[in-house]
Design goal:
Strand 3 and strand 4 form a beta hairpin. The protein folds into two domains: 93 residues, no CATH class; 72 residues, Nuclear Transport Factor 2, Chain: A (Roll), CATH 3.10.450. The chain is elongated, with a radius of gyration of 28 Å. By secondary structure, the protein is of the alpha+beta class. A four-stranded antiparallel sheet has the order 1-2-3-4, covered by helices on one side. 48% of the residues lie in helices and 12% in strands. The longest helix is centred in the C-terminal third of the chain and has 36 residues.
Length: 213
């Protein structure tokens, strides 16, 4: 545990080892889930380990939207959000995602709805709505996902700590702060070791030359 009254190298050594022991399990989870999020091969490995085929590369495509008639204007996002609230009465949080290609072609608007008392707590109802009529074209719930998709969703929220609510986010944040301190104490210990090695190194020409017989 942390020891009081230490200074310099002793303090850095104590902090480095204590934080390393306590933060290691959390940092392993954060790092592993981060690799899955960042690298395609790791993402595909999660799907295969869960027994599901990996998804194709690229952004998942939403349902197709029929081209509207001339002069048809898209509904306000507030209206689409209101329709989503009506469809999922137990909602507690809504996120609206727009297709980046929406300006070039008609595209469905995705609304992610988190419900109160959902299990797991990060589970969401995914809705795709026609932006011109407000009709919902597709609905996807956590229970509808394949085992690979469920595992991938867990990785996403384990990385931020949201999988375990506010307490999980607090632990993830403290572990990340601890990692920064580990870097600082590790560098301090390494620099002190380097300084000692340089001081112990004999200076060229400082040794007395042997006297001639």
């Amino acid at each position: 545990w942390f020891r009081r009254g230490l200074q310099g190298r002793a303090r850095d050594w104590n902090w480095h080892h204590v934080l390393g022991i306590w933060c290691l399990p959390v940092l392993v989870v954060l790092s592993t889930s981060g690799v899955v999020i960042s690298y395609r091969w790791a993402n595909d490995a999660v799907f295969r380990l869960a027994g599901s085929p990996p998804p194709p590369p690229g952004r998942p495509q939403g349902p197709k939207v029929e081209a509207p008639g001339d002069g048809t204007v898209a509904l306000p996002l507030q209206r689409l959000a209101g329709l989503a609230m009506e469809r999922v009465p137990a909602w507690r949080e809504l996120t609206v995602r727009l297709d980046p290609q929406a300006g070039r072609r008609p595209a469905a608007v995705q609304v992610s709805v988190r419900e109160r008392d959902a299990r797991p707590r990060f589970a969401a109802v995914q809705l795709w709505a026609d932006p011109f009529t407000g009709k919902f074209l597709r609905e996807e719930r956590y229970g509808d996902l394949s085992r690979g998709r469920k595992a991938r969703v867990w990785m996403r929220f384990l990385h931020t700590g949201e999988a375990f609510g506010g307490a999980g986010q607090l632990v993830a944040g403290l572990a990340s702060l601890g990692a920064a301190v580990l870097v600082w104490t590790g560098l301090a210990l390494a620099l002190r070791r380097l300084a000692r090695a340089l001081r112990a190194r004999p200076v060229m020409g400082s040794e007395a030359e042997p006297s001639s017989p």
